[in-house]
Amino acid sequence: GEALEVNREVNCVTDFIHGCEDQLQKLKKKKEKGLLYGIPISIKDHINCKGHISSGGMVKFLGQVKEEDSVIVQVLKHQGGIPFVKTNIPQTMINYDCSNLIFGQTLNPLNPQKSPGGSSGGEGALIAGGGSILGIGSDVAGSIRLPSSFCGLCGLKPTGNRIRYIPTSPGCSDRPFVLAVTGMLGPMARDVDSLALCMKALLCQEMFQLDPTVPPIPFDEQVRLRGTPMSPSAQQSP
């Protein structure tokens, strides 16, 4: 309901993911509750969800319904998360704004005269507007960080190859133009604790089994809790 309300105001949702209610009923019957149990999660347009398109804001991809969930969506579901909407992006995703000729312009919920940023602009607008508490965006050159900044949110571009990432459609951006700049999927939310929980949930055995190219290194809670990095002089002390 909240997502619909926010969408009416800022035009940030491109699709509702059918079957999310059924998934919740299945989760209730499972003995083991995942780290993201029952949390509705919004998903950037170009991330594959079974039975839905990944348009990249381009008409030529509108007829291509995806046959299976991407690895990240499978892992989110394994951890009890419920992907429930797909969110808007700029055409080809090579843009710091968020509009395309299919779904139109997404507005910033903090100020509808402003842009939410891009390319994960639908995510930024939906979360900032109160329609989602956790979302998955992607970032090569700021596509998570810019909308997070524009919309007053927290976002993380993880280290390259930390999470499974394969661009879904040829011609879509958020793929590395230079090998030194790696496109990455990452979480967006209203606080750092939510980002940390999402990373902890994603970096699990299921992820490492589904994609053997991801280094099997779990999330290190102790590193996060240490707070600010030590100064060089403190690091050198015995």
Number of strands: 8
- CATH class category label: Alpha Beta
Lateral arrangement of strands in the main beta sheet: 1-3-2-6-8-7
Any guess at the CATH architecture?
A: Alpha-Beta Complex
Q: In sequence order, what are the helices and strands, one letter per element?
A: HEHEHEEEHEHEEHHHH
Mean pLDDT: 89
* Sheet/helix structural class: alpha/beta
List low-pLDDT spans: 168-177
Number of helices, where a helix is a run of at least 4 consecutive DSSP H or I residues: 9
Strand content: 5-15%
| Tally of distinct domains | 1
List keywords for this structure.
about 240 residues; alpha/beta; Amidase signature (AS) enzymes; six-stranded mixed β-sheet; two-stranded antiparallel ribbon; about 30% helix
Question: What would your notes on this structure say?
Answer:
With 238 residues, this protein is α/β, with parallel strands linked by helices. The chain has one domain: Alpha-Beta Complex (Amidase signature (AS) enzymes), CATH 3.90.1300.10. 29% of the residues lie in helices and 14% in strands. It is built from nine helices and eight strands. The strands form two sheets. The protein has a six-stranded mixed beta sheet with strand order 1-3-2-6-8-7. Strands 4-5 form a two-stranded antiparallel ribbon. Strand 4 and strand 5 form a beta hairpin. It is globular. About 4% of the residues have low confidence. Belongs to the amidase family. One of its GO terms (molecular function) is amidase activity.
